Amino acid sequence: MFSHLRNHISVKRLQALSSQTRARRKRPEYWGSRASINQGDDHAGIVHEVGGGVTEFRVGDRVAAMHEGKQPGGSYAEYGVSWAYTTFRLPPSTSFQEGAAIPFAALTAACALYAKLNLPAPWLPVPETQRIPLVIWGASSAVGSYAVQLAQRSNIHPLICVAGRAQEHVEKLIDRSKGDAVVDYRKGRDEVGKAIRASLNGARLRFAFDAVSEMGSYQTICDVLDHQLGKITLIIPAQSYSDIPKTIEKSVTTVASVHEDLKDFGYVFTRYISKGLEEGWFKAHPQEVRPGGLEGVEEGLKDLKSGKASAVKYVYRISDTPGVVAES
């Protein structure tokens, strides 16, 4: 079916996922997608076929993967394809449901921290004697919480995590003994700025990842970010961010870059995430299984776009789709 595609893997999907990032950002407008394309990206299942040049995977392997956006073979289907470099093995302790909640958001977080902000890699952590404050706005989202987990692995502290109604989820990820803090964005610009400054304890803020990039988030960050050495990365590519001071280094993080200039980066981090799952220091974002399998995708996307999901990823069990025979 797909074996003619070099360096690709065909997966019989058991779980697919809707990305809140893309749903909330009005994906066709922001990502240039055509309406006829199957837009699903995250999936998990069993390797069905391997294309030429693939040596790392075998038929029957349990995997999770991120499909390349705007290309045929998206994840809202029983079978589909992904590049080998954005596919990774799932350890026995990680379910397909959990696996489907990882690739897109985790790779986005990795791109933000390490490709855009150039923070120390998690396999070369910051010495205990050094402090690197980092603001993560939207820390309760999947992208944000994966960023927190990776930053912890890099020993980056204090982590100043901005969240709203799902602050309890973020509290489980941080280390208060190292100065980490959770700030409630609902308190307003001035109060949030004061809380961030208090958490800095006199240090300069040089790094920020805005995993929301709207509703005043980056403007509030820039109130505190060092205007000479500060770096901020954001996630909505269609905005100009012209109100960010010119002396602050700004960038936009898009996960599509792992299919462009960051292919090796994507390869390394998918394998590293698999290692983290196996060792237990990397955890999947909480999931909610939506009813109806693939028939539930439309309603799920509507709920994501309207902001109904809080600290959960929407997952679709393929076998729940009417007419699909369940895997024995």
From TrEMBL:
Entry-linked SUPFAM superfamilies: GroES-like (SSF50129), NAD(P)-binding Rossmann-fold domains (SSF51735)
Gene3D superfamilies: Medium-chain alcohol dehydrogenases, catalytic domain, NAD(P)-binding Rossmann-like Domain
MF term (GO), any: oxidoreductase activity, acting on NAD(P)H
Record-annotated Enoyl reductase (ER) domain positions: 12-253
Pfam family, one: ADH_N
Alphabetized UniProt keyword annotations: Oxidoreductase
Keyword Flavoprotein: no
InterPro entries xref list: ADH-like_N, ER, GroES-like_sf, NAD(P)-bd_dom_sf, Trans-enoyl_RdTase-like
Family assignment from sequence similarity: Belongs to the zinc-containing alcohol dehydrogenase family.
Official protein name in the record: Fusarubin cluster-oxidoreductase
